[in-house]
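Methods — Computational structure assignment.
A single polypeptide chain was analysed. Its primary sequence is given first, followed by the predicted tertiary structure written as structure tokens.
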Amino acid sequence: MADREQPVTLRTRKFIRNPLLGRKQMVVDVLHPSRPNVSKDELRSKLAELYKAGKDTVSVFGFRTQYGGGKSTGFALIYDSNEVMKKFEPHYRLVRYGAATKVEKASRQQRKQRKNRRKTVRGTAKNKAATKDKKK
């Protein structure tokens, strides 16, 4: 991994302390002239080190690399504690960071087919229609 040794510079802009949501929020500019891009995991650890917070309380997202490379810009949130992060951060991001588990559900097509099978019957038979498989 020669890429990890290449220098990366982090600059934060528009820093705001948000006490209602228990976090610091900022725009992050990442300068990486000799690398194609920087992983979000690496950015989280560097920001945690920079702001003296735990890596598990840092959330980074929305990074776009400038045309021509060398600079990426995105958004970062540093929460005061893990509990506050779990309370306010969207579930999909918590899943991304390993702080929550993904809810497994049937595919979109299967859910729609089940809904439409339910529409053909009335009353308590709706539960049977939803669970039975069509065998023709």
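Note: The mean pLDDT is 89.
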